[in-house]
Amino acid sequence: MTAAVRTLDDVRDLIKASLDHPALLDRLGDEDDFAQAGIGSGEMIRIALSLEEELRRPLLDDELLGLTSVAAVAALIGAEAN
Fold first, then answer.
1. What contacts 26, CB < 8 A, 6 or more positions away?
2. pTM of the complete model
3. Dist CA 52 CA 54 (whole Å)
4. Rounded distance, CA 58 to CA 51, Å?
5. Which residue in 5, 6, 32, 57 has the most C-beta neighbors within 10 A?
């Protein structure tokens, strides 16, 4: 992602770019669990790689395990509510 991720909308755009079916994210609330919603491991890897690019550093193991929702991703990168 070229522009800095600053809002939940930006976080959602970052996540959508990593999904096989981006429209799935439109049906999820910010706290909904990715795995329960059907977001697969390959998509999670792409989300993690996008976050590493955004943060300009590798994610720690506990950060990787914490990528469970839009809200969790937003908290990790310090995005603000819209």
1. none
2. 0.88
3. 5
4. 9
5. 5
Phi, psi for 80 (deg, rounded to 5): -100, 155
Rounded distance, CA 36 to CA 53, Å? 26
Q: Please list, in sequence order, all residues whose beta carbon lies within 8 angstroms of the beta carbon of residue 2, skipping any fewer than 6 positions away.
A: none
In the block, residue with structure tokens 């809200």: 71
Question: Are 82 and 7 in contact, with CB atoms under 8 Å apart?
Answer: yes
Cα(80)–Cα(82) distance, integer angstroms: 6
Tens digit of each residue's pLDDT (9 = 90 or more) over 1-46: 445 778 999 999 999 999 999 999 999 999 999 999 999 999 999 9
